[in-house]
Amino acid sequence: MDYFTVQWVTLVVGFAGHVLLDRSPMRRTASRVLELAALWMLVGMGVFNLWGGFGHIGPTSDEVAASIGYTQSMFQWELGWADMALGALFVALARRRGAFSPPAPTPVRDAVAV
User: Fold this and answer.
1) Based on the structure, what is the number of domains in the chain?
2) Are 32 and 22 in contact (CB under 8 A)?
């Protein structure tokens, strides 16, 4: 339970500090606060997924398995690699966050949408 408490406290405190110390010209606007919230969730969850993945496949994997009520198995190995893949993806997506803006409207797309 401590793992999840540390995770959420870190995300909330980091997000609040980022909002308070933000130097962007758009600071404290609704869109900027939502952007920072999404950024902290994406990167924060990515980092904690990496941390959890290393716990499942690293030298402490026996302790991690015992703490969640399982024995060490290939399922834990798979879970560790899946956690690390998602963590790497989340951190990488944060680097490209401006590349996912909606496309410009076109007559063909607008006609199909109606």
Assistant:
1) 1
2) yes
CB atoms within 10 A of CB 78: 12
Which residues have CB under 8 Å from 18's CB, separation 6+?
Answer: 36, 40
Answer whether residue 107 is part of any domain.
no
- CA 37, CA 17: separation in Å to the nearest integer? 11
CB 97 within 8 A of CB 39: yes
In angstroms, the CA 21 to CA 113 distance is: 42
Is residue 109 situated within a structural domain?
no
Q: Which domain holds residue 72?
A: 2-98
Largest interatomic CA distance in the chain = 59
6-65 pLDDT, tens digit per residue, is 999 999 999 999 999 998 888 888 888 998 998 999 999 999 999 999 999 999 889 988
* Residue 110 domain flag: no
8 A C-beta contact, residue 57 and residue 12:
no
**The residue to which tokens 């990488």 are assigned:** 92
In-domain check, residue 105? no
